[in-house]
Amino acid sequence: MKLSLHKLKLRLGSIFQVSDNNLYSFMNIFKLFIISVLIVGIFFRFINIDKKVFWGDETSTLVRIFGYTFQEMRQNFLTNYQLNVADLQKYQRLRSDKGTLEVIKGLAVEEPQLPPAYFILLRSWVQLFSSSIISARSFSAVISLLALPAIYWLCRELFPSSNTAWMALGLLAISPFQVLYAQEARPQSLWTVTILLSSAALLKSLRQGTKLNWLFIQLL
Question: What value, to the nearest 5°, has the Cα angle with vertex 158 and ends 156 and 160?
Fold first, then answer.
């Protein structure tokens, strides 16, 4: 009888060992799949980034980062009935007399609902590279990549298993909305990153309660 019980334990142990190995192999395949999805998501954030129409809101972004206001444009258009391409393009170029202070003032007066951080950062970006469509949009694409580790961190704060974080990572990488916002010269990508980071930092602060974590939230 004791011998039979011993054989049964050995058999059950071998079964569970095989199951654990199968589960381990499955998780490896799952993570490789998510990594492949990440690569695809990153690829779609940059491919043909200059092919879409540069629409009105993106144009207003460039007007803002170069320190102009809509009131200035309206006054020029009302007094000058013969506008050419050069007249319009001057609002899409950097000028030495239009600095960061003009960017903040223009937003405060005409679009106070928009935080200035994105426009100040984008201004520095185009100063470093160029004011082309690719340059303006690529800033949003680069910022959108920060949302990937941010969503992973948030899920790790919310759920005990890392599998949920991996799944969320893959879903965000190929989300049509996130890919669309990543290719627009608008602040939505930065908002996404800020919301994810501040949410994760808040959860961590509530759990640990360190001053450094609370300071990080204040900075966000």
Answer: 60
